[in-house]
From TrEMBL:
Belongs to the tRNA(Ile)-lysidine synthase family. ATP binds at S28, G29, G30, L31, D32, S33. Its EC number is 6.3.4.19. Keywords: ATP-binding, Cytoplasm, Ligase, Nucleotide-binding, tRNA processing. HAMAP family: tRNA_Ile_lys_synt (MF_01161). This is tRNA(Ile)-lysidine synthase. Residues 362-430 form the Lysidine-tRNA(Ile) synthetase C-terminal domain. SMART domains: TilS_C (SM00977). CDD domains: TilS_N (cd01992). It holds the Pfam family ATP_bind_3. It catalyses: cytidine(34) in tRNA(Ile2) + L-lysine + ATP = lysidine(34) in tRNA(Ile2) + AMP + diphosphate + H(+). The lineage of its organism: Bacteria, Pseudomonadati, Pseudomonadota, Gammaproteobacteria, Pseudomonadales.
Length: 440
């Protein structure tokens, strides 16, 4: 494959990202990223491309790596490209490979700005290895799709423009242009699973089936197509469950349970996985018993499925995803010294009085049990019964701000008919959270 052919293919692949604000290249100094960076630098001389810059993540896992940033800087200087070196701490864990990857992508995530693209050098052989590795781990259809050619990353996009290019083509290009690259000694260490596949398994497969790499990549493409169909099915099922709710103002992701409960078990898992994937890491297929327990709990129960990054609650006929502040018990109530100004609550957003300020002294508290509230024309009513009448989800009952004057309960935030006095012209408004309940 000639340089012109490879350049043209790269340019065609990157066409959708020609309008990006910046192209940042993940530059390890290895063969793949060296060729990618060199190709782009040459293309930039004849094509109108976004500004180019390189990112080198220094993991500090081995002594040899201390010289790599300087190698990368020298290479970038020769091309006239800026280089940013990011040093990361790799958390010890069961998988050093996985921990290093997590640290690397966390650094990329933080470095990528709005409408920027991060280009990485993974190639066709990497794709085949990824499929085989995930197959051996028992991955489902999504995992067997291997690496996507592009996906969102931080405020921008991650793009892998070399997935259709074999390692042999990259080596030929590097030799033709006399490029020097880093050979990571750890890439020869067979204790790492990917290295074992690359050096021991893939050569055996290729010796018996010369088209093994291409066939594995084609299988990954089939899996991606199948996953696309599953995603479309999930969207259809989720559309039925995304019904409006009286408590949407809480800002908590939720779904109606009944439409999901009517689906087969496989479609339930598919829809729920699609919904939860942006919110949390999911268990493997053998550890979904928490979902079954949640669905099968008694009608009057308030079951919880605890996941890696939060909890799924069932209450008031809906599923609610809680994370961050919603999992922390709000501190005890406090006196409201200046009711004319919003009051920030510890771990519970803030409250404010809209309209006329009732006479004080006032304080904010939370339900402890046994509270009663006097309503016009109804006399004193038990707060628990009032919350039941309005279908307040169980998880929010203990953190709904209550306005007291002395021991008298004056208002329950944001519940129509309980949130203030229409006669006196005021009501209690609660902004539940300053945190983002969205993407992890």
């Amino acid at each position: 494959m000639t340089r012109i052919d490879l350049s043209d293919r790269l340019l065609r692949t990157l066409t959708p990202w020609r309008t990006a604000a910046v192209w940042r290249i993940a530059f390890s100094g290895g063969l793949d990223s060296t060729v990618l960076l060199h190709l782009l630098a040459r293309l930039a001389k004849t094509e109108t491309l976004p500004p180019l810059s390189a990112l080198h993540v220094h993991h500090g896992l081995q002594a040899a790596a201390d010289t790599w940033p300087e190698h990368c800087r020298t290479f970038c200087d020769a091309l006239g490209l800026p280089l940013q070196v990011i040093r990361v701490q790799v958390r010890p864990g069961a998988s050093l490979e996985g921990a290093a990857r997590d640290a690397r992508y966390a650094a990329f995530d933080a470095a990528i700005g709005r409408n920027e693209a991060l280009l990485t050098g993974q190639h066709r052989d990497d794709q085949a290895e990824t499929l085989l590795f995930r197959l051996l781990r028992g991955a489902g259809v999504r995992g067997l799709s291997a690496m996507p050619a592009h996906r969102p990353l931080g405020r921008g996009s991650l793009v892998r423009p070399l997935l259709e290019v074999g390692r042999g083509e990259l080596e030929a290009y590097a030799r033709a242009h006399q490029l020097a690259w880093i050979e990571d000694p750890s890439n020869q260490d067979l204790q790492f699973s990917r290295n074992y596949l690359r050096h021991q398994v893939m050569p055996l497969l290729a010796a018996r089936w010369p088209q093994a790499t291409a066939s594995l990549v084609r299988s990954a493409a089939h899996a991606r197509e199948a996953q696309g169909l599953l995603d479309e099915l999930a969207q259809l099922d989720l559309d039925d469950a995304r019904t409006p709710d009286a408590f949407d103002w809480l800002g908590v992701p939720s779904l109606a349970l009944a439409p999901l409960a009517g689906l087969s078990a496989a479609r339930q898992r598919n829809a729920l996985s699609h919904w939860l994937t942006p919110l949390t890491r999911l268990p493997d297929a053998d550890h979904w018993s928490g979902w079954s327990d949640l669905c099968e709990a008694a009608v009057d129960a308030a079951p919880v499925w605890r996941l890696a990054d939060g909890e799924l609650h069932r209450s008031a006929g809906r599923l609610w995803w809680l994370s961050g502040q919603w999992l922390r018990t709000p501190a005890a109530g406090e006196a409201w010294q200046d009711p004319s100004r919003p009051l920030r609550l510890a771990d519970n957003g803030r409250v404010m009085l809209l309209g006329q300020t009732p006479a004080g002294p006032l304080r904010i508290g939370y339900r402890q049990g046994g509270e009663t509230m006097r309503l016009p024309g109804r006399g004193g009513r038990d707060l628990k019964r009032l919350l039941n009448e309005r279908g307040v989800p169980a998880f929010v009952r203990g953190r709904l701000p209550l306005l007291f004057r002395g021991e008298e309960l004056l208002a329950v935030a944001d519940l129509p008919g309980l949130d203030g006095s229409a006669q006196d012209g005021w009501r209690l408004h609660w902004q539940p959270s300053d945190e983002d309940q969205g993407l992890r």
